[in-house]
Structures are given as C-alpha cells and as structure tokens.
Design brief:
This protein is of the alpha/beta class and 236 residues long. The protein contains 7 helices and 9 strands, in the order αβαββαβαβαβαβββα.
C-alpha cells in the first residue's frame, strides 16, 4: 500500500509538471490569429537594451511605440536612438509618455513635447496610465481626467493627432469610461479584449523577437496595413 501511495504521488507530480510546462510553452508562443490581426508591433524602452532593429523588422514586426518620457522631467535615454534606428529599419514608429500621478499634467506635456520630434511622420502620441511603478497615490477618475486633459490638449495640438490612452487591466477597471475619451490601447494577456473600441492590443508581456535580448511586449493593431499607414501619416 505504501509503495502504491508513493507511486500515485509521483504520477501526480509528473502530471502537474507536464501541465505547468505545457502552459508555459503555450504562454511563450501565444499569438492572436494573424489572419484577423495581420499587423504586429512592439513597445520598448531602455529596459530592452541595445536593439538590432533590422533583425526586428525582419521578424514580422511592423511598428514600434517607444518610450520617450515619464513625469515632468525624465527622458528615456534610449529614445532618440531607438526612434532613429527603428525608422531606418522601415518600421512605423511612435512615442509614449508614462503618466505619473504626482506631477501636473501640463508639466508632463511640456516634457513630452520637448523631447519628441515634430517634423517626422509618427504614430499618434500615447499616454501610458498604469499603477505599476507609479506614485502611490491613486487619483479619483475626476482628478485623473482633469490632469489628463491638461496633458492631452497641448500634446494633441503639437502633433496634430488625437492621442491614444494605454490602460493596463487594473487601470482599465478603475478608469475606463470615466476619463478623457480617447482611442485605447488595451493590455489583455492571452485573452482578446471583450470590446472593440481599441487601436492596439498588448497580448504578451514576455514575448521574444529576433534582435532583442530578453522579453518584450507584443501587440497587434486593429486593422491591416492601410490602417497603420493612416495612423502614421502626417497631420493634414
């Protein structure tokens, strides 16, 4: 009886390990239906280190949204290099700003506008709203909407396009539908967003792309190449 219990325990352990390994491999390799979402992109910052953008472009990546700024005075030190080299590799490129809860929106807008070039074709500016890595205070939807409006007005005037708001799952639960109405970039790992009012969908936060050492966020665009071209066109 004792040997049988030990054997059953070993079988159960092996089964659990196989299920865990299968789940891990599925997570690592997951990608949305490419017939439905043919345009894939990445978002990066200095955390990705030195990037070989030509290899990235050859690995089925069509666009990159690159961190430019954070708060009222921080500039991502890889932004200029990433923007220049991603564009040279043929990708559609854009910039994003990490919105902090402890600086006025108008100060953050000045930071972003001063860093991102205005004389080049760019995807719409993105403002990243999330709790991770942010100030501990949590503004009410009304407070955040006011500060976002103070950020969005000058940014959209400078770049001539409506901005896109990036929301993580937790931030979306708190603020979606209760802050300044803008096109959305949603983060939903492994699950397609349950509503269609989004431009970008971040489906993976530990993806792998040739030309980048380590993990990178993977995204798809809602629409095909024509939509990407329209998004990156100069403002009229």
């Amino acid at each position: 009886m004792k040997n049988r219990i030990v054997l059953l325990g070993l079988v159960s352990l092996v089964s659990v390990c196989l299920v865990a390994a299968g789940g891990y491999l599925y997570f690592r390799s997951y990608s949305p239906d490419r017939d439905k979402y043919p345009v894939r992109g990445i978002d990066v910052s200095h955390h990705q280190g030195q990037i070989d953008w030509r290899r990235v472009a050859a690995d089925d990546v069509a666009f990159a949204v690159i961190k430019a700024t954070e708060g009222g005075d921080h500039v991502d030190d890889a932004f200029s290099t990433n923007l220049r080299e991603a564009r040279a590799a043929g990708l559609a490129v854009g910039a994003y700003h990490f919105f902090t809860f402890c600086r006025p929106g108008v100060d953050q807008a000045k930071n972003f506008i001063s860093v991102v070039p205005h004389d080049q074709p760019l995807l719409p500016p993105v403002v990243d709203v999330e709790f991770g890595g942010n100030c501990p205070q949590r503004p009410t939807p009304e407070q955040l909407s006011t500060e976002l409006a103070a950020f969005l007005a000058p940014v959209e005037a400078a770049f001539g396009k409506p901005a896109i708001v990036y929301l993580t799952d937790e931030a979306a639960q708190t603020y979606a539908g209760r802050i300044a109405a803008r096109p959305l970039w949603l983060r939903s790992l492994l699950l397609e967003p349950d509503h269609g009012d989004w431009v970008y969908w971040q489906y993976h936060n530990r993806g792998r792309v040739d030309g980048i050492d380590g993990d990178v966020d993977l995204n798809v665009l809602q629409g095909g190449p024509a939509v990407l071209k329209a998004l990156s066109a100069p403002p009229r």
